[in-house]
Amino acid sequence: MENKNRKILRNIHTASRSILYIRNISFSKYGLQRGQHTFLTRIVENPGITQEDISLLLRIDRTTTAKAVKKIEAKGLIIRKKSTTDRRAWCLYPTEALMAIYSDIDNEIVTLSEKCTENFSTSEIDMLNDLLEKYMTNVNREWANTKNNI
Predict the structure, then answer these.
(1) Range list of H helices, the chain
(2) Structural domains of the chain, count
(3) Across the strands, what pairs with 92?
(4) Of 36, 120, 50, which Cα lies nearest the Cα of 83?
(5) CATH value at residue 78
């Protein structure tokens, strides 16, 4: 018999991979490659975010973040500026080119989110959000413990 906690983890992992696949296909029409939309949404939501902070926010190592930032900067979707408070840090800002397509990207994310919960009542959506926030508290604790022990 399968462990119920293990089944939850497998379902979350499968859902995450499926959603990422759908998004990657959907956003390829904007010239975006695997996972780049994730960086772009966080930069639009947090203009001036540092590369270090976006790495922590997305739980992605600094090298992967640097490569992704370099690629999306080359596409003219973001600009990097040296931080005025920390000369080692780079701050990331959306460009007009990104802002011109961002509402379309955001609409596709919202539409997919709605499709994934289309048979849910409002109270079920609220309950799922509450449970996932509780789950993420535990995940974040374990992530921090693991990261601190490397």
Answers:
(1) 4-27, 36-45, 51-58, 62-74, 96-116, 122-148
(2) 2
(3) 49, 80
(4) 50
(5) 1.10.10.10
Q: Would you write out the chain's pLDDT as a tens digit for each of its 150 residues?
A: 568 889 999 999 999 999 999 999 999 999 999 889 999 999 999 999 999 999 999 999 999 999 999 999 999 999 999 988 888 899 999 999 999 999 999 999 999 999 999 999 999 999 999 999 999 999 999 999 998 887
Question: CA torsion, points 142, 145, 149, 150, in degrees to nearest 10?
Answer: 60
> What are 126's two structure tokens?
């609220």
- CA–CA distance, 17 with 10 (Å, rounded to integer): 11
Whether 94 contacts 44, CB under 8 Å? yes
Are 17 and 34 in contact, with CB atoms under 8 Å apart?
A: no
Same-domain pairing of 9 and 64: yes
Contact 62, 69 (CB under 8 A): no
Q: How many Å separate Cα 67 from the centre of its chain?
A: 16
